[in-house]
Specification:
Blueprint lengths: L10 H11 L8 E4 H7 L2 E6 L9 H9 L4 H6 L1 E4 L3 H12 L4 E5 L5 H9 L3 E4 L4 H15 L2 E2 L6 H17 L5 E5 L4 H13 L4 E7 L4 H8 L24 H8 L2 E5 L1 H14 L6 H11 L9 E6 L6 H14 L3 E9 L4 H11 L3 E8 L9 E9 L3 H13 L4 E3 L2
Parallel strand pairs: 2-10, 3-4, 3-6, 4-5, 7-8, 7-10, 8-9
Antiparallel strand pairs: 1-2, 11-13, 11-14, 12-13
Length: about 400
């Protein structure tokens, strides 16, 4: 991909940012995963920036911006608009440097993120139904108070700060052949791609967006930012309707490929990271791995660094993701089974299920619905199994024993 626009940052800016923020940012590991390597057919290295103090990479760019404020700007304070990770990054590092911070968050922001941002020392204002409305209010407050606005992605200093991840990955994995990075507004991948490509142009850079909000993909196709329709996604950290004016030229210059993943693919990747790698990722943080697990990229057999950029996920959402993941894997199944309404019928059924080592976790009897004949009943049984193979075996046995059954989805 090429562009005639001159990039606003260079490798030297990222190197300077790294020296600037080095003492305050955790050098997150980039660990090799044997399990994921075997599963994907590539050598996978997980860059775990979900282990940062605020639980996400965003504090790198925020800190780089904060450290370059003038004394007068520091005295007046900073403003940001964010639904989560950027808010916490700005709040934490502004407080650490004695700078007032005001964060405007959408009304629907999960309480856990609002509370975390307040605990890091920010003044939180809840405003608007979405990020766009919060952004407008933040810029109004910024102008009225003469404060400095810290953009979540479309700022050269922020981009350079995020790019420090690329420099770290190059050092941690000398044999690196590719990197896979989530894309929202493009600040993260713009910085990482610049660091990677200016150091070693042979390394491929792949971006991943949620299929519900592919704003950067649309911008690259049109060669200018495009505002796309609003949509909800579990990858809220990359739920950006319009790519950045500053980030787009960098993406066009340095990024080799952009792919998308859907909600179920992201949820599955979250579950894989939690269960196999013992690390917690939010939706945006798992998007890169989702693309590899689903073989969405053109990468084959490469030493690949995958950014796990954040781990700030609401626990209620996490519980739903886990349950859905178990269903997709066949480890949680609900069957609707017709029975004669007579003594011992249920006992015979549960004995059969127990003999095939499935564990019943919930049951629901129904005599009046689902077209049940008089003298019959229907029971919904939710079971834990070892996986699809055991489920197929159980279904075959139920059929052989004369039970009428169906899957409840």
């Amino acid at each position: 991909m090429t562009t005639t626009a001159k990039p606003v940052i260079q490798l030297a800016d990222i190197a300077a940012a790294r020296e600037r923020i080095r003492k305050s940012i955790y050098l997150s590991p980039c660990a090799h995963s044997q399990h994921l390597s075997a599963q994907t057919g590539q050598q996978i290295y997980l860059k775990l920036d979900n282990l940062q103090m605020t639980g996400a990479f965003k504090e790198r760019g925020a800190l780089n911006k904060i450290l370059q404020l003038t004394p007068e700007q520091k005295q007046r304070g900073v403003v940001a608009a964010s639904a989560g990770n950027h808010a916490q990054g700005v709040a934490y590092h502004a407080t650490q440097h004695g700078i007032r911070s005001i964060i405007v968050m959408p009304l629907a922001t999960p309480l856990v993120k609002v509370t975390a941002t307040k605990n890091f020392g920010a003044e939180v204002i809840l405003h608007g139904a979405n990020y766009d409305a919060a952004y407008e209010e933040a810029t109004r407050i910024c102008t009225a108070g003469g404060m400095t606005f810290i953009h979540p992605f479309d700022d050269p200093m922020v981009i350079a700060g995020q790019g420090t991840i690329g420099l770290e990955m190059l050092e941690q994995v000398p044999q690196l052949e590719a990197v896979v990075v989530p894309i929202g507004g493009g600040g993260l991948i713009a910085g990482i791609a610049c660091a990677i490509k200016e150091t070693n142009p042979k390394i491929r850079v792949v971006g991943v967006q949620t299929s519900r909000l592919p704003s950067m993909m649309a911008a690259v196709a049109e060669h200018h930012p495009v505002t796309i329709e609003a949509a909800t996604t579990i990858a809220d950290g990359i739920a950006v309707r319009r790519a950045g004016d500053v980030t787009l030229p960098l993406v066009e210059k340095y990024v080799d490929e952009i792919v998308t993943v859907d909600e179920d693919e992201i949820a599955s990747a979250i579950l894989v990271l939690l269960e196999r790698e013992k690390t917690l990722a939010e939706g945006a943080g798992a998007a890169g791995l989702a693309a590899l697990l689903q073989k969405k990229t053109s990468l084959r057999g490469a030493h690949t660094g995958v950014l796990v950029g954040g781990g700030n996920i609401d626990v209620t959402l996490l519980s739903r993701i886990i349950e859905r993941g178990l269903v997709q894997d066949g480890r949680l199944i609900r069957l609707r089974i017709h029975l004669l309404d007579k003594p011992g019928a249920l006992a015979d059924l549960t004995k059969l299920i127990a003999e095939h080592r499935a564990n019943i976790v919930d049951t629901l009897h129904n005599r009046a619905y689902y077209g049940v004949n008089l003298g019959d009943t229907v029971i919904d049984i939710t079971m834990e199994t070892r996986g699809r193979e055991q489920v197929d075996e159980l279904l075959a046995v139920l059929t052989a024993e004369g039970y009428k059954h169906s899957r409840v989805l």
